[in-house]
Amino acid sequence: MELNDKPNGGKWYGTKSSYEINEKGRSTEDVYQMTFQSKDPIIPISTPEKAPKKKLSTIGGHGHGVPVEHPTSYGETLMHLLKGNVGSGIFAMGDAIKNAGIILGPIVVLFLGIICLYCQHLLLNVAKKMSTKTAVPSSPDFAETVGLVFAEGPPRIQRFSYFMKRLVNVFLCITQLGFCCVYLVFISENVKQVMDHYGYHMDVHIHMAIVLIPVLLTALVRNLKYLAPFSTVANILMSIGLLITVYYSVQDLPPISERVYVAEVNTMPLFFGTALFAFEGIGLVLPLQNEMKKPKNFKRPLGVLNVGMGTVIVLYILMGFLSYLKYGDSIKGSVTLNLPQTDVLAQSVKIIISLGILLTYPLQFYIPVDVIWPVVLRNIGDLKYPVAGELIFRTILVLFTFVLAEAIPFLHLFISLVGAVSSTALALLFPPVLHLVTSYSYGELTFIQIFFNVCVFICGIIGAITGTYESIYSIVGAFQNYQEG
């Protein structure tokens, strides 16, 4: 029997779903649109003079959202996907390959990339089914899709719809705030190298405190419309920095035989976390598909998703392989830290990339603010000066990321921790669960689906547990050695 043929509007056994849809096609719960959670969010902004076209969606929310026009071409969407997935994580791939081995590493990166792509297709399929069944005018985002799947599933799990929807937002906030912490460490370490070369020797903590000032100023920008130029400049700078880094990495390469083919087992969890940190862009797929002129072109065999993620996988493997081959065990958490300190071009790339990351911080920071601030308002009530209240909240949240970054000044380990905890949950755990629940609800569950989804889930669980443990263990050890030194 088809799901739509069930009594009581298709709900299971006449039960009442805890996740209702209002007349505007949104859940009656507070909806926080988590649109871009990747390393380099792309925000297409419509001009004030031009009236919006037929279809509109909103990036952000709570009074800060900016209407965006729908139609984006295949090429435009592909560029958004590429820029959204290729960010600071790509410079850490050399360290990731070191923790797996120069032969095993690229193979596992390819394997993880394929699994992540598979999970992204699962999310797209589930979102489409939920959108069709609930007849919402606008396609649901990641968190809404999770809530709808559980609300429309078997009776025993319907009561978890609110919790699961909020859980996605929690992991999303952890991921985004983790990026912000990593950005502070990344910028400070790169700037320190340049300043040290010119005789201005200061502790990395002091550099971080100085970097905090421009970071805080950009984070106080409340409207995405004014953040859009930051994204454009950041992407240009990151592209230039990437090209220069590759140029240095291919100079005087040693033979592969000088590198470890397969690393020790105890370093593999660190590799897993770092790789997932770089690959975590699953929150990008739904909004990008929704903004296309022809959404069907997004997930077809040679569509935007397959072509874009295929290119991303190749770039990650290439950058990781060349970086580790060039610098070996001396590879740092970001390959930019390995570039020659005496070359002007090498020094410039560190500043270029650091500036690009600094301009990306407020875009990553926007997401957790968009989630947490409304919750704060609900608990403290209406404010006499709401704008001032939000600015104070933003300042506190920036200081929170600053304190974390100061406490854990080990970039490669922190990247691995963020990837192991939240990136794994979003990229590898939620999609197979959603697909299993949806297939069961529709009576379409097969043994092949169960096998593949359970394998992906188990892989994610093992990677998350071992990666988190090893990352925390390594961070504690590194911090103790740092204090003793």
From TrEMBL:
GO terms for cellular component: membrane. Keywords: Membrane, Transmembrane, Transmembrane helix. InterPro entries: AA_transpt_TM. It is found in: Membrane. The keyword Transferase does not apply. It is a multi-pass membrane protein. This is Amino acid transporter transmembrane domain-containing protein. The keyword Membrane applies. It comes from Cryptolaemus montrouzieri. Residues 70-472 form the Amino acid transporter transmembrane domain. The chain crosses the membrane at residues 102-124, 167-186, 198-221, 233-250, 270-290, 302-325, 345-367, 387-405, 411-430, 442-465. It comes from the Eukaryota.
